[in-house]
């Protein structure tokens, strides 16, 4: 096989799905003896985990109170200006998001690259004019488009008459196989200060797409149920770095937390970005993974949870239903039905037979 020179571009160094995909893809291509280089915008931070291939971080500092339209334009301009000033000579240019795709589009318009590929993880319902344009161009302008699920293949064919290639995401299952390690779960619970508590876990921070308010409402119901039994339920929330401004949604979330009587740092623990080397411990410290997302590209964290032996409760939406089966490897609920979600949490925690079945079949799915 001919060794190719490949550039893979992403908009961030934070542990968002597209960035995780970038690093894993680059390292796998390098393992196949291709010459891979990653480019990413950075506000001064390195990648969230060690990276085994060469990479360049392009300085793009955060500007306080900057409008979204201005931010997106500045990101694209910064990216394209840097790339056009370098001696690019790659066989393949691969963009992981709309910002890097628009930067490559500018370079193609300048004649500096002949063609480029874009992986579309999902499409957002933006209201910002710059983001709407950024996303549209990043989908219809690339020379070839890859999607990570059948859902988005169908969407791109219907909406844009495109013929994308489907390449499903996967995870390194060996990294998350901790259940057989003696004492690992107990040590993991100690690490996150959850001791003997029942623990539900969410990944993705507080944002509309992750449907965090529905999880909050379900948590309040389930917490009350366990309290009546003299037991305590705790909710760990990991992640949260994003390009977008979700202040209104976050304000609503924290107002509802206050009204519910739940206490931050006691009942609900916001972990922020968890170090990559601690992710296996985070999954092991938990009893149920809760994921009522309203829109996904594939759902990498769901597969990570399953590989970790953590039972999953998720939305009954595509593309999750491409690999999740209700009652077999997961519990599926309507995304906005917080009562069904609460019921699922209680069932999984209290029913060992159900929990074992979901765990066993979930591991098989992740493999």
Q: Which terms would index this structure?
A:
Rossmann fold; 2 domains; 7-stranded parallel sheet; 6-stranded parallel sheet
Number of strands: 13
Helix content: 40-55%
Measured distance between first and last alpha carbons:
27 Å
Average pLDDT for all residues: 95
- How many domains comprise the coordinates? 2
| Annotated CATH homologous superfamily of the largest domain | Glycogen Phosphorylase B
Q: Structural class of the secondary structure composition? A: alpha/beta
By CATH reckoning, the class of the largest domain would read Alpha Beta
Largest beta sheet: strand ordering: 3-2-1-4-5-6-7
Largest sheet at a glance? Answer: 7 strands, parallel
Would you identify the regions where 5 or more consecutive residues have pLDDT less than 50? none
Compact description:
The chain has 13 helices and 13 strands.
Element layout with pairings:
Blueprint lengths: L4 E6 L6 H15 L3 E8 L12 E5 L8 H17 L7 E4 L2 H12 L7 E4 L8 H12 L3 E4 L2 H11 L4 E2 L6 H4 L7 H8 L6 E6 L8 H17 L4 E6 L8 H14 L7 E5 L6 H6 L3 E4 L8 H8 L4 E4 L15 E3 L4 H13 L1 H15 L1
Parallel strand pairs: 1-2, 1-4, 2-3, 4-5, 5-6, 6-7, 8-9, 8-11, 9-10, 11-12, 12-13
